[in-house]
Amino acid sequence: MDMRADQQYNPYRNFSREQWAKLRDDTPMTLEAGEIAALRSMYDRLDLREVEEIYLPLSRLLSIYVTATQRLYYAQRKFLGIEDRKMPYIIGVAGSVAVGKSTTARVLQALLARWSPRPKVDLVTTDGFLYPNAVLERDGIMQKKGFPESYDLPTLLQFLSDIKAGRNAVRAPVYSHLTYDVVPNKWVEVDQPDILIVEGVNVLQTGRLPRDGKAVPVVSDFFDFSVYIDADEPVLRDWYVRRFLALRDTAFHDPRSYFNRYALLSDEEATATALAIWERTNLANLEDNILPTRPRATLILKKGADHVVENVALRRL
Ligand SMILES: Nc1ncnc2c1ncn2[C@@H]1O[C@H](COP(=O)(O)OP(=O)(O)O)[C@@H](O)[C@H]1O
Ligand SMILES: CC(C)(COP(=O)(O)O)[C@@H](O)C(=O)NCCC(=O)O
């Protein structure tokens, strides 16, 4: 069949920032300027306007999706004639290192938690499921931190399965950016949330499919909705380097910082170090393992060089 390019099915509807902003409709603003500033990560841009024009329409969309999913869930229970507990709604937040995933995840958590009636909204980051540095060093993959092989995927899948099964007090390990390692004997407890946000570079990855036909779950099997935060590579590299320079002047001065040895580097030296880490680890990971997952997201938020979202793409149902 002759399929002309303009006839090809596009799984996404695309919106300019202005078109998307109108979809806020009458969703009320529930955050104050001070609260927004507290949600922002270093070198991210998040202000009242960004929340109003990008995140309130998304909050409205999510409230519609959550309600519809709950209805479907209850309908299935009715069909099966079973009594079951509530099913947590799980949202994945994916994208490159330094794109601002943590800020987006925190602002979503804050907005969704203020819906009425107030849902319990928890947030976990997948860095807690990285193997400890001792294991990465033993396996010679310390420079592949963030790559699929650096994560304890079975433990992450078990965690998500426990949450979906409605277990209480499910524990997730915790990562420290300061020590650059998983924190021994420390966990966050996730206790039957209505909504769970799972943020990390790897959340839309599928892994290799087995030939024996056995079902192998992937992280996104547990997601009801996913957001991919996107920006062009030169922009990401610039943000990564700027953040590295800012951390050099702040966090790296802490003697416990893994990067303490970089605290006294000149601007030129620090820039060269950041660029080397970017190229060797984060860019390679972006190209090989993160960008290929973008077409799986429910929603893509594309940021411009000034950190603000310029375009939005929503997957058709
Ligand atoms: N070496 C570091 N020391 C302290 N904080 C860091 C360091 N590297 C990253 N961070 C912080 O960790 C968080 C997660 O960063 P990252 O994984 O790059 O994701 P994103 O920028 O998409 O949120 C950010 O808030 C960032 O500012
Ligand atoms: C810890 C990370 C892999 C991010 O993990 P995530 O929370 O996305 O699972 C990343 O922040 C990181 O440290 N990358 C390694 C290279 C670097 O130091 O930038």
Automatic annotation (TrEMBL):
<keyword id="KW-0547">Nucleotide-binding</keyword>
<keyword id="KW-0963">Cytoplasm</keyword>
<comment type="similarity">
    <text>Belongs to the prokaryotic pantothenate kinase family.</text>
</comment>
<dbReference type="GO" id="GO:0004594">
    <property type="term" value="F:pantothenate kinase activity"/>
</dbReference>
<feature type="binding site">
    <location>
        <begin position="95"/>
        <end position="102"/>
    </location>
    <ligand>
        <name>ATP</name>
    </ligand>
</feature>
<dbReference type="GO" id="GO:0005737">
    <property type="term" value="C:cytoplasm"/>
</dbReference>
<dbReference type="InterPro" id="IPR006083">
    <property type="entry name" value="PRK/URK"/>
</dbReference>
<keyword id="KW-0808">Transferase</keyword>
<dbReference type="Pfam" id="PF00485">
    <property type="entry name" value="PRK"/>
</dbReference>
<keyword id="KW-0173">Coenzyme A biosynthesis</keyword>
<dbReference type="GO" id="GO:0005524">
    <property type="term" value="F:ATP binding"/>
</dbReference>
<keyword id="KW-0418">Kinase</keyword>
<protein>
    <recommendedName>
        <fullName>Pantothenate kinase</fullName>
        <ecNumber>2.7.1.33</ecNumber>
    </recommendedName>
</protein>
<dbReference type="GO" id="GO:0015937">
    <property type="term" value="P:coenzyme A biosynthetic process"/>
</dbReference>
<dbReference type="InterPro" id="IPR027417">
    <property type="entry name" value="P-loop_NTPase"/>
</dbReference>
<dbReference type="InterPro" id="IPR004566">
    <property type="entry name" value="PanK"/>
</dbReference>
<feature type="domain" description="Phosphoribulokinase/uridine kinase">
    <location>
        <begin position="90"/>
        <end position="243"/>
    </location>
</feature>
<keyword id="KW-0067">ATP-binding</keyword>
<comment type="pathway">
    <text>Cofactor biosynthesis; coenzyme A biosynthesis; CoA from (R)-pantothenate: step 1/5.</text>
</comment>
